[in-house]
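Feature request, filed as a ticket because there's no other form

It would be nice if the structure record came with a short human-readable summary line next to the tokens. Right now we just get the raw output. Example of a typical job, pasted below so the devs can see what we mean:
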Amino acid sequence: HYDSNRNKSQDLQNRQKDRNEEDETTAAENDKKKKKKSGAQVMGADSLLKMVCEHIIVAKVPSLNAELVFLEEFARDEQLLRGKEGYSLVTLQASLHFLNASTDFNEDIFKNEE
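Raw output as currently delivered:
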């Protein structure tokens, strides 16, 4: 009886996972269609990284590295690590890593502004 309930539970979890993946795929396809209809431009990852770095510098958020460590520590939920939230977290991580390694912001970030 225990194995039967466990199998049913596993089946339900698998079906829910499949539905979630289908929903994510459908949502991504709908976003693409909306962007095509609206004429919205898609930004590349390099441009996004540069823009996030610029915003971090201008914002002057105190202890941003500590804030990121806090987010990393408590963002263990799979839902938070996927989709827009996960992409945002990884983009922030990459931006801070780049800024922490940079010795000359003007050269590394702002050099092609003209």
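Something like this underneath would help us a lot:
The chain has a mean pLDDT of 75.
The chain is about 80% helix and 0% strand.
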